[in-house]
Give the backbone structure.
Amino acid sequence: GAGVSQSPRYKVAKRGQDVALRCDPISGHVSLFWYQQALGQGPEFLTYFQNEAQLDKSGLPSDRFFAERPEGSVSTLKIQRTQQEDSAVYLCASSSSQYRGMFGNQPQHFGDGTRLSIL
Amino acid sequence: SQQGEEDPQALSIQEGENATMNCSYKTSINNLQWYRQNSGRGLVHLILIRSNEREKHSGRLRVTLDTSKKSSSLLITASRAADTASYFCATDASSGTGRRALTFGSGTRLQVQP
């Protein structure tokens, strides 16, 4: 497709259930990011992949959060034993470039997100 | 945690007026980017300004960057009802072996009245 695709768009789960969120980045994009966005706030970084390698997972809030990108394209964010505080919009973004030195990275292309509600 | 603070948090103007949003940040950066988010949608990249640039234009958008004050502003001229959205600044402080992700501010919610 032309853009970043995320599924499902909405997910409702009961507290304690496991959920899996999928991201299809733009074809050929090397970099893939997951962000969490609380209502009325800006996105907050969760984790970053360069191809299939997870280079930064410093933003994952607990060991209940796990992300993978086994073939360097599609990525899945899994949350185990969900809690009410996990309710948020989860955004995926991809970017074409690797690190470019002092000028940083290319802009990121975002999907429309998955709105997760934990009851 | 969010690096940027945006001001104002909310802004309501009439169509045709100019809208100015400000962003302050805390650490040294490689570039600063502005994104727009319509309700229920993802973020759309608007403009990127590098750390060695002071001003940049794109259509009705004008961005300034003052690295000595660690601040940036976004000006939207001749606003339209379709400009109604939330606007976020994001800083890129990436390094070769370190962090690559953007750090976002808390956003300015712009309402343009027709």
Summary: The domain at 5-100 of chain A is CATH 2.60.40.10 (Immunoglobulin-like).
